[in-house]
Design brief:
single chain, mainly alpha
Length: about 70
Amino acid sequence: MSEPNPMLADLHDISGRLDRVIELCQRLAEENRSLRVSQEQLSTERSNLLAKNEQARSRVEAMIARLRTLENGA
């Protein structure tokens, strides 16, 4: 029986490593897509919360103005 070809063993090793790198790249790409979706959702939620906060601030300021008007008129 002859000795295994060291070059063939190296190629097999490189092929295995390349398969693992490809698998890792695919997992990272999927994770990246997932994170981008989450980021977009959080950005939308933040925008909505900022708008609600602005509405609440405007309402409070309007109430304060009405109270001052009532106070000055009384």
